Amino acid sequence: MAPPAARLARVSRTVTFSACHRLHSKSLSDEENLKLFGKCNNPNGHGHNYKGKRLTALLTQIDPVSGMVINLTDLKEYMQEAIMEPLDHKNLDKDVPYFAEVVSTTENVAVFIWENLQRLLPVGILYKVTVHETEQNIVVYKGEETISE
User: Is the pTM of this model over 0.70?
Assistant: First the structure.
């Protein structure tokens, strides 16, 4: 009898965190920032309950012994360290060093989460990070770094 073929699966887990930020680029004047970011450029910032921070394992083989792609307890701990500890109930611009020089857009929040998770997860397992800033504003990041010109 032939051994069973390797089965591949993707696993998702969602966390929610609250944070505030101000959309403001040091490369622009105050007037340009206000024009570009509008009310989101408020000097006192504004907050979100970011929902649906999700990571998906990339076509990873299901372990034939455990029956899992990844132990969900481990995944929960990785997400706690990579997402919740640095971001939850924080002022992104003031409390998270990454955003001292990077505008705290949802796109860049997704990149931040991706980079933090990449450090913790087994190589090649991370497929995408999805960040829901609001019900209408959603960013998906799959690790793309540059576009060839």
Answer: yes
* Residue 145 annotated as catalytic: no
Is 40 marked active-site?
A: yes
Q: Structural domain boundaries of the chain?
A: 8-21+48-141
Question: Which H or E run contains 61?
Answer: strand 60-61
Tokens encoding 29: 């004047």
Of 46, 77, 85, 89, the active-site residue reads 89
Domain 8-21+48-141: state its class.
alpha beta
Could you read off the pLDDT tens digit of each residue along the chain, which spans 149 residues? Answer: 555 677 888 888 889 999 999 999 999 999 999 999 999 999 999 998 887 655 565 567 888 899 998 999 999 999 999 999 999 999 999 999 999 999 999 999 999 999 999 999 988 889 899 999 988 899 999 987 666 66
